[in-house]
Write a structure and sequence with these properties.
By secondary structure, the protein is mainly beta. Helices cover 6% and strands 27% of the residues. The chain is globular and about 65 Å long.
Length: 636
């Protein structure tokens, strides 16, 4: 979700000691040899500074010619590649007997939207069925009511709230590759499904049934309506789909006087005014239903192969405004789930399952993520780090400090991490793992870093007014369930032409800002996607960076090349591919987004008319299929 820096959540007012208080700011650890080197004093740009890479480095994974920065209203890919929109917002997912066509005047009903692809596609994964068919499970992060309704927010009604809620959630669609290499959506499909902001969902794990999760509508505290603000995603070794609830605070109208818990989770009186759901769906009024807010912010598990399965919120992994959930497997067969909380000065987490993964798919592992240990990361100034157990009764996590039981620790994961002294990060978002067990995390930006009243720079977050962001990485000592790790920065994003040193970066290759999406493909290429805000693109320190883009990086050499540029206003997000490496899927989210992040219903095409280019149309988020014209491997 593109965000105006000034409106983003910044709720961490804890006084836990960050490493900026004890670290030497000159000791900043970066990737050695490849993308950078140890930095002392002011940060200096390293490597190539142009818009395109002239020639590949010896032994590189990257065989394509970089594309240039552009502001064109299209998807630009390298020579020899082709890209086309596959599944735009509003197209039917393929539920038999219920496939309403998209209406370009935005007159589709809420009932139509319930069975159509939602708005603002985000994380996704491809699940192969055969050599030529598979499923795409994808997130729909949020809605733009200026595009969703013919007259926007005017004449606000329960039907509009219902349609907005239906535009959120997850879609599962079936796709098929044709003999000529093109890909099409299969309709109807027995797998087709929509999950929305009012689909029944189960709460399971240690916090399920806790008094803080009980409401008048659900006195058991075990059944929630809906999922919200789904961003990045994860795939499990047993074949399920993980999706996380990120900026859920913005949907709730806060009480007149939020208590300390509500304030720590971003609740303010005016928060609900953006979506206005509380006006026709009372559960989003925290003043009337104070526990409803606690029922969001969880990792949700879905079986994409079973459209009748009830989605499950896994409370053992803790509550956070997570971007996603990335799964690794230990040598002993246990699942390790890494995640970052996308808000300024929030944390990076790891969950280790108690039990080993069993053969037999989702049904055999339906309770695996309900039992295990949650940890939060502390990055030390010497390039080492520790995982701090988030466990009731250990250290400060006691009843005397406001944590009455294990369930309360998980519901108050932020407060628990504050008390433990975890490292406050610059918006940790997507996480990916390479072949050498390095775990990468995008830290998209944090313009408040080093500003008055906010934490200063530290070794892991080394730039004040960090508008450009960076990618940090770590490798566990021993296995993924290790208690300690080594860490460094893979790259600091930026433009070396900028005057301010903190905005120059040290990229070895093509310039970019605000890294967000990450994916390691089957060949080991690290794909990086960007999310520069529509309020910043083309201005100031972003003046030379064009539209948001996707880049490819060689983890061994650190070389980074620009592979794709999207249309104006969009975010590039979600990356997955077929097992043979010859078809890639990415998402173009919110093309034509306005600086206010809400479109003008009277002029929806002001900034973009992608992908349909109709004179009576409107920009639509869409999944895009990318392939080589010669049928070769993506990235070569």
């Amino acid at each position: 979700m593109a965000k105006d820096f000034s409106t983003m959540e910044d709720s961490n007012r804890s006084s836990n000691a960050s490493i900026h208080e004890v670290s030497d700011p000159a000791r900043r650890t970066l990737l050695k040899g490849g993308a950078g080197a140890a930095v002392t004093g002011l940060l200096a740009p390293l490597g190539l500074a142009g818009c395109t890479t002239a020639a590949p480095l010896a032994g590189t994974l990257l065989g394509f010619k970089s594309v240039s920065v552009t502001t064109a209203d299209t998807v630009t890919v390298p020579e020899g590649y082709i890209a086309h929109a596959l599944a735009p917002w509003g197209e039917p997912v393929g539920i038999a007997g219920n496939t309403p066509a998209f209406k370009f005047d935005a007159s589709n009903s809420a009932a139509d939207q319930e069975v159509q692809l939602g708005m603002h596609h985000d994380g996704m994964h491809y699940y192969a069925l055969t050599d030529t068919t598979g499923l795409l499970a994808m997130n729909h992060e949020y809605s733009d009511d200026g595009l969703l309704h013919r007259d926007g927010l005017a004449n606000w009604s329960a039907e509009k709230v219902r349609k907005s809620q239906a535009a959120h959630g997850v879609s599962v669609i079936e796709v098929k590759r044709q003999p000529d290499g093109t890909v099409e959506v299969v309709r109807p499909s027995r797998f087709a499904r929509r999950i929305t902001a009012y689909t029944p969902v189960e709460l399971r794990g240690p916090a399920a049934g806790h008094p803080m999760l009980q409401t008048a509508a659900d006195p058991t505290g075990r059944r929630v309506l809906g999922i919200l603000n789904q961003c990045a995603s994860g795939i499990t070794p047993w074949g399920s789909y993980l999706t996380s609830e990120e900026n859920f605070a913005f949907y709730f109208q806060g009480p007149d006087r939020p208590d300390a818990h509500q304030r720590r989770w971003g609740q303010r009186k005016e928060m609900g005014q953006y979506y206005r759901w509380h006006e026709h769906d009372e559960r989003f009024d925290t003043g009337k239903h104070p526990n409803e807010h606690n029922r969001f912010g969880w990792v949700v598990e879905i079986d994409p192969f079973d459209p009748t399965m009830t989605p499950v919120k896994r409370t053992a992994m803790g509550r956070a405004a997570r971007e996603g959930a990335t799964v690794a497997v230990t040598k002993a067969g246990r699942a390790v789930v890494y995640s970052g909380e996308d808000a300024r000065f929030e944390y990076i987490y790891k969950f280790v399952s108690r039990d080993a993964i069993r053969p037999g798919g989702y049904k055999a592992n339906a309770e695996l993520l309900d039992h295990g240990m949650l940890y939060v990361a502390r990055f030390e100034a010497d390039g080492r780090g520790r995982w701090l157990p988030v466990v009731h009764g250990q250290g400060p996590l006691t009843a005397a400090n406001g944590f009455a039981d294990p369930g309360e620790v998980l519901i108050k994961t932020r407060q628990a991490s504050d008390a433990l002294g975890a490292t406050k990060m610059d918006r940790p978002e997507w996480i990916a793992i390479d072949r050498e067990r390095w775990v990468y995390c995008t830290l998209t930006n944090n313009s408040n870093r080093g500003q008055a009243g906010h934490p200063g720079v530290d070794a892991a977050n080394p730039r004040a007014n960090n508008v450009m962001g960076q990618i940090i990485r770590w490798r566990e000592d021993g296995d993924h369930d290790g208690a300690t790790f080594e860490w460094n920065h893979f790259v600091l994003a930026g433009d070396p032409a900028n005057e301010r040193a903190e905005a120059q970066g040290n990229i070895r290759g093509d310039t970019f800002g605000c890294p967000d999406g990450l994916w390691v493909d089957g060949r080991g290429v690290l794909w990086i996607q960007t999310d520069m805000s529509s309020t910043a693109m083309g201005k100031g320190e972003f003046a030379r960076l064009g539209n948001n883009m996707m880049l490819a990086a060689d983890p061994k050499t650190g070389e980074i090349r620009r592979f794709l540029v999207g249309p104006p206003g969009c975010e590039i997000t979600g990356a997955t591919g077929t097992p043979d490496g010859r078809t890639m899927f990415i998402n173009v989210q919110h093309p034509g987004e306005t600086p206010s992040e809400r479109s003008d219903p009277a002029n929806p095409r002001r900034y973009s008319n992608w992908p349909d280019r109709r004179p009576d149309g409107r920009p639509r988020s869409s999944t895009v299929v990318i392939r080589k014209r010669d049928g070769g491997l993506i990235g070569t």
